[in-house]
Design a protein that fits this description.
This protein is 43% helix and 12% strand. By secondary structure, the protein is α+β, with helices and mostly antiparallel strands. The protein has one domain. Strands 1-2 form a two-stranded antiparallel ribbon. Strand 3, helix 4 and strand 4 form a beta-alpha-beta unit. It is globular, with a radius of gyration of 15 Å. The protein starts with a helix and ends in a 6-residue tail after the last helix.
């Protein structure tokens, strides 16, 4: 943590941590913590995209290795998140897809997770089409309806494999 903090500060002179309100269980807002990987800007309701100019050099490395997500373990300790579960979306996505997709709201019946079935199944990162979101939600709902300790352990182990393998959608 200290080394990352120094590198972030040296590169962009901004706060080390990025904090953003996200919808959690029962759609109650919580503050989601991440290491800052982007330049400060007013557009916090837009996901990073491939070759996004807002992402810093150290940010690219952190995102590729998922190190930027480590502060979310604080969210787990605070009881706002769990290690495995549906990823917490932006409020703008929550509103948009909550209206469009029938089972979207089900994802708020559990705590959001640092990693999830959708993420290890190829639906990590930026959503560019409604079809991608439909598929992400299908995996989220499947996870909720079929939860087991074994499933959590499989997701965690696949997450670790993906970190070392390098996820092409990690940007």
């Amino acid at each position: 943590y200290p080394l990352l903090g120094i590198l972030i500060k040296l590169e962009s002179k901004v706060p080390v941590f990025f904090k953003q309100g996200r919808p959690g269980i029962d759609e109650n807002e919580f503050i989601c913590y991440k290491f800052r990987s982007m330049k400060m800007n007013k557009t916090t309701e837009k996901e990073a995209s491939k070759d996004d100019p807002r992402v810093t050099a150290i940010g690219k490395f952190m995102r590729k290795t998922s190190i930027d997500e480590l502060p979310q373990f604080v969210n787990v300790l605070l009881g706002d998140m769990s290690v495995v579960g549906p990823r917490p979306h932006l409020w703008s996505q929550n509103k948009e897809y909550g209206k469009k997709l029938k089972k979207y709201i089900i994802r708020h019946s559990v705590k959001p997770g640092i990693t999830g079935l959708a993420q290890v199944s190829g639906f990590r990162g930026e959503i560019t089409t409604e079809r991608d979101m439909v598929n992400r939600i299908k995996f989220d709902v499947f996870y909720i309806e079929n939860w087991s300790l074994i499933l959590d352990l499989k997701i965690i182990s696949q997450t670790v494999i993906n970190i070392f393998k390098g996820d092409k959608k990690a940007y």
